[in-house]
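[09:14] KT: can someone run the structure on this one? pasting the chain below
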Amino acid sequence: MLAWLDSLSHFHFLRPWWLLGLLPAALLVWAVRRRGDVRRRWRETIAPHLLDALMLGERRRLALRPVHLTALLLALGAVALAGPSWRQERPPFLDDKAPLAIAVDLSPSMDSVDVTPTRLERAKLKIKALLARRDGGRTALYAYAGSTHMVLPLTDDASLLQTFADALQTRIMPVPGRDMAQALRVIDADLKHEPVPGTILFLTDAVDPAAAAAFRAQADSGRSQPVVLALGTAQGGPLRNAAGGFVEQDGARVFARLDEAALKRFGDDSDVPVATFTPGSDDDVAWVQRHVQSHLERIQAGDRARWKDEGWWLVPPIALLAMLWFRKGWAVRWSAGLLLALAFAAPPEARAQSSTQSATPASTPADAVRPWRFADLWLTHDQQGRRAFEQGDFARAATLFDDPMWRGVAQYRAGQYAQAVQSFALVDSAQADYNQGNALARQGQYQQAAARYRQALRRQPQWPAATANLALMEKLLAQQIPRQKPDPDDEEEPPDLPPDEIKYDAAKPPESGGKSLQVGLTQDVEMWMRAIQTTPTDLLQRKFALQQGQGAPAQAPR
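[09:31] RB: done, structure tokens below
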């Protein structure tokens, strides 16, 4: 009941001037009734007492006549066009999952056992519960202590995220400490490239008071929202060491305790949400997810909030009433008007074209005039292209899309790589540069493809796919050896192994032909696989050490 009253209090019309259409509806009924009023017509000629006697069989009740139906249709149409509304639209990107970056504190205190089995292991369980709640939302994983390192970029692969989350250990961090301000800067710089605002979740057992100012500035910036979830207890617990025992100092065990007062001060100073974990439930995980979604709604609905047009609810009754026009004696000659409206609804270029125009070939340029179709009355070109794309008809989709990015993707899927390069070139973004590189590589233009990948990495650093493809291009360029006797027919063909077979188009099978390059790449892959004789934890430790410029740590004996 309260929800209904609240909706009623927000009821208004988006286009109230259309309500003036109610006046013609009322005037139409009045005019027709006045015209059919026999008593009014003879009132000035026949005396009233005689007129009453002459009016035989006068109908006193209101009969439903075609004019009433027409007036009702006009009234309903006017109300529908006025745009009745009582609730706001969801933001345009709300259906997309809000990006989330999880920053895990790998300071030594996270090995405390006051939380079973340890604070770090409990953080991993919270990550697992959060990934389950996000249901495919794009999530990134970072580790921080005295330095900050990306573990995985934004991905919707929950199993991969959980695998690397389970591999996190405090011993892998190259720099001791707890620099939360640096972690915030690094992660926010990565999330700046996202089209929708994100949230940065810090899983930690202590806060850095010196970072409060940086967190407040971040919260006020309108970009990625920081959220802090602390793990631990006020009673604290001893620190577990790598050997399975406990850390001791001067013969006494070292305890780590959760400073709840410091957490509260940090939340007040930084103006960011701060909470402690709930050991017996996932209420804390639900709290985090609510903040992720509410931040997205607040940012996107801020100054772009729109009220939802509910006028479409009146379309079914209007259609049902219109069906009564076909009742005998009620027909309205509307066919000519409908045909005229359809003729003027078609775009000018469609009316100018011949009805016998042939279909547009697959290579039609984007600015060419398309033949008008009946579907243009109901769907935009991009909507028609998306339908053809989802049906697997990529060549037809490429002729329908107006959006250059989608048109390029359709051309790429259809094997029109040269056209795809031209379409992607119309978009100025890192993704467009990356896609151009893929299309150029498909044509064997490895030098140009490498240049596009470098441009994409300049715009979006630490992009794993672009980095891997760039490395592959450089390897292919290094392995190209001039032939002693070039074959003119063979020189126009790309190598036997398409470069994106490995990285960017695994669904397309490799072409057949010479095997020299393929054998070389296969041997390289096998050598890499034989060289990997370590755990994901050790791989992360080496990666972090190399990023910090300390060199790879010594491998533990096995």
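[09:33] KT: thanks! The mean pLDDT is 76.
[09:34] RB: yep, looked fine to me
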